[in-house]
Amino acid sequence: MIYLDNAATTICKPEPVIQAVAEAMRSMGNAGRGSHEASLDAARTLYRTRERLAKLFGAAAPECVAFTANSTESLNMAVKGTLSPGDHVITTVMEHNSVLRPLYQMEELGVQLTILPLHDGQIRPEDFKSAVRKNTRPSYVHMLPTLPVI
Q1: Cα(115)–Cα(124) distance, rounded to whole angstroms?
Q2: How far apart are CA 78 and CA 20, in angstroms?
Q3: I need a surface site. Which of 9, 41, 43, 144 has the fewest CB within 10 A?
Q4: Residue 112 belongs to what H/E stretch?
Q5: Taking the complete model, does pTM exceed 0.90, yes or no?
Q6: pLDDT for res 62
Q7: Percent of residues, the chain, with pLDDT higher than 90
Q8: Among residues 65, 66, 84, which one has the least CA distance to residue 139?
């Protein structure tokens, strides 16, 4: 089978993923839903996973790791949770809809949005540099020195 729509959901799961999910469904309870062993095991598994991800990504603590239903929900949380009215964001015309929609919503609340064009599929460093303002969020400004020169 050739399946070309891997963006939203992936139909072909690797066998270890299928096995791990099936085993969890057979043996784990619902974390946080009780004090019986199956729920406690699920809570321990979630916490161990948070510990490993915190270490992998350099988070301060496992409690800094949050799980969401999907990447769109994560992107919405990141955009809406880090921007405030008066902030400025720079993105491109190639940004995914799952980021653009919350950015447009934040724009209605007073976030300033600059959408850069692409030239031959790339951002011109001078376009990015000229788009930076005093209120541009630093998390976006940090990309400035690493942009490729066209």
Answers
A1: 13
A2: 29
A3: 9
A4: strand 112-116
A5: no
A6: 94
A7: 49
A8: 84
